[in-house]
Amino acid sequence: MKGKAFRIFVFATALTFFGGSLHLPAALASSVLSSKVDVEIMVKVSQKGFSDERGKLFSPKNFLKIPKGQVVRITFVFDESMSSLSYGDTHQIAITGAGGTKESEKIWVFSKKSSVTLQSGKDGDAFRAYCIIDCIGMEHLNNLLIKVV
What we know:
Elements: H1 2-29, H2 32-35, E1 39-46, E2 49-51, E3 64-66, E4 71-78, E5 93-97, E6 100-103, E7 113-119, E8 126-131, E9 144-148
Parallel strand pairs: 1-4, 3-9
Antiparallel strand pairs: 1-2, 4-7, 5-6, 5-8, 8-9
């Protein structure tokens, strides 16, 4: 009886090990967007709102432009100053478009960057980015317009 229980234990352990190791690479390989990125864009996130690499705030007139038909990775960077009340704040950005919603990981003082990768689509398509966590400056982090040009 001990031999049979031992064989079952070994079989179950092997099944768990090999099943997990076969599943993980397949899951990682299934994301086509993660393997080929055509354009990378950085967006700073602070209580003042979303801004470009130079610090200029995005607005309805100054929207984020992405090229049509490209795989775009948008990296959100925590950009609170140490003197700001929201220095300890956390942000998590969602991007919504015709294809659904994608969320970044949380960004904060100890994890300052997170990316979202998307397929841009055709000229005139639009996306909206916003913080999904209640935070200081929430009123400025609720409507980043992203347009395909």
